[in-house]
């Protein structure tokens, strides 16, 4: 199977290396790079059109950074009748229904295992479970950078020290805004909802987010005094079968979450991920592993390509859900000790409104949301 690789950074290079080290019948025959960077390897080109018109290429493996032009290239590749495998949640999350509809019309697969949970088979297991089980909620430590910062601050480092260490080790990007601000988790919550619930929020319903920027050692001590710890998480809940409802009801969120120090999540250290979902027959299921890194992410992309080679079928496009804030609720604890109760939307709004005055806020979900 001939593939074209778009992007030759940490993930793209790793994908090329892995397929060179361990032949599995997948050949990287073209590599898209920016103009001026195509020298030295006859497979490299800066011309996307030449890749899309090359009939020998069955799969486009997209490992570029940023939303555009990656999203446009993914759409064009699907329209050209090529399967697409991507690690780029920022490119697909805003337009997943459209991209999956195009894929279905053209009879090709858009696979995005590597976009959430890294090498953990998270999307694959959600899809597999959702064929029969009704999944109604998920929660996950799905951002390795955020978890690394929290883990190191638990050991006494300041936010700045922990971030500098994470950057030196390659666990955080030079610009950590997407990770620390929760935007990476927002995109992961959307692709997770598509796989788990078969629905995504409408474009006019942004996922409410509380970032990690204000996390302090003082707050970690406050939490510890209550027998709690913090983990940076994405979570969601769906009510699919309400009588007379036109669309499933959905609420997604991203926040630092206050959890018991004895919970499974509290034991997740360094840049690891742990994600859980709840099926009505299977009950709770949790998945742990490396959530990022060039080789683990490329490994997840290769798994998608092997599925395509074995005849994976196009996924059903998700429907647009009706927002229902009441599905996610609990309390918020500010660093100054103030507690507020309400829906997660209300608590996230309070964090924005009062954060300067009251400091860091962590969300403590109602026990029904995360119970095992
Ligand atoms: N790294 C991880 O652990 C990880 C984990 C899961 C998912 N992902 C996702 O995987 C994707 C790649 O991540 P990465 O860590 O490999 O990022 P990266 O090291 O920054 O590499 C991104 C690559 O995309 C290329 N690129 C950007 N715009 C381009 C354009 N217009 N034409 C051609 N090439 C272009 C860049 O080229 P230049 O070198 O010229 O800038 C670079 O080679 C991202 O979407 C990321 O969110 C990464």
Structure, described:
The chain has 14 helices and 17 strands. With 372 residues, it is α/β, with parallel strands linked by helices. It has 2 domains: 110 residues, NAD(P)-binding Rossmann-like Domain (Rossmann fold); 211 residues, Dihydrodipicolinate Reductase, domain 2 (2-Layer Sandwich), CATH 3.30.360.10. A hairpin with a 3-residue loop joins strand 11 and strand 12. Helix 6 packs parallel to helix 10 and helix 7 packs across helix 8. The protein binds NADP nicotinamide-adenine-dinucleotide phosphate. NADP nicotinamide-adenine-dinucleotide phosphate (NAP) binds next to helix 1 and helix 12. Pathway: Amino-acid biosynthesis; L-methionine biosynthesis via de novo pathway; L-homoserine from L-aspartate: step 3/3; Amino-acid biosynthesis; L-threonine biosynthesis; L-threonine from L-aspartate: step 3/5. Keywords: Amino-acid biosynthesis, Methionine biosynthesis, NADP, Oxidoreductase, Threonine biosynthesis. Pfam families: Homoserine_dh, NAD_binding_3.
């Amino acid at each position: 199977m001939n593939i074209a690789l778009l992007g030759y950074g940490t993930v793209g290079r790793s994908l090329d290396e892995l397929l060179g080290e361990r032949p599995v019948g997948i050949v990287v025959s073209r590599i898209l790079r920016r103009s001026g960077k195509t020298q030295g390897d006859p497979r490299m080109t800066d011309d996307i059109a030449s890749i899309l018109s090359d009939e020998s290429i069955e799969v486009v493996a997209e490992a570029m950074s940023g939303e555009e032009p990656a999203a446009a290239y993914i759409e064009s590749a699907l329209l050209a009748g090529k399967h697409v495998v991507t690690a780029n949640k920022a490119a697909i999350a805003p337009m997943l229904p459209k991209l999956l509809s195009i894929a279905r019309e053209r009879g090709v697969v858009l696979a995005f295992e590597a976009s959430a949970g890294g090498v953990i088979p998270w999307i694959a297991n959600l899809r597999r479970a959702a064929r029969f089980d009704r999944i109604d909620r998920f929660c996950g430590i799905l951002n390795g950078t955020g978890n690394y910062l929290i883990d190191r601050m638990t050991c006494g480092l300041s936010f700045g020290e922990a971030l500098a260490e994470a950057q030196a080790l390659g666990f955080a990007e030079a610009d950590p805004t997407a990770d620390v601000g929760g935007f990476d988790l927002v995109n992961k919550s959307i692709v997770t909802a598509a796989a788990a619930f078969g629905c995504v929020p409408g474009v006019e319903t942004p996922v409410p987010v509380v970032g990690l920027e204000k996390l302090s050692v003082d707050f970690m001590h406050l939490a510890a005094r209550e027998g709690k710890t913090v983990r940076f998480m994405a979570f969601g809940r769906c009510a699919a079968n309400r009588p007379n409802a036109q669309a499933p009801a959905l609420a997604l969120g991203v926040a630092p979450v206050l959890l018991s120090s004895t919970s499974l999540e509290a034991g997740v250290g360094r840049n690891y991920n742990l994600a859980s979902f709840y099926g009505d027959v299977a009950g709770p299921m949790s998945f742990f592993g490396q959530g990022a890194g060039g080789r683990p992410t490329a490994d997840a992309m290769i798994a998608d390509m092997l599925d395509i080679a074995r005849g994976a079928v196009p996924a059903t496009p998700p429907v647009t859900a009706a927002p229902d804030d009441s599905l996610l609720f609990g309390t918020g604890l500010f660093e100054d000790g103030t507690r507020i109760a309400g829906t997660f939307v209300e608590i996230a709004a309070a964090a924005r409104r009062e954060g300067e005055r009251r400091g860091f806020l962590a969300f403590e979900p109602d026990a029904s949301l995360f119970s095992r």
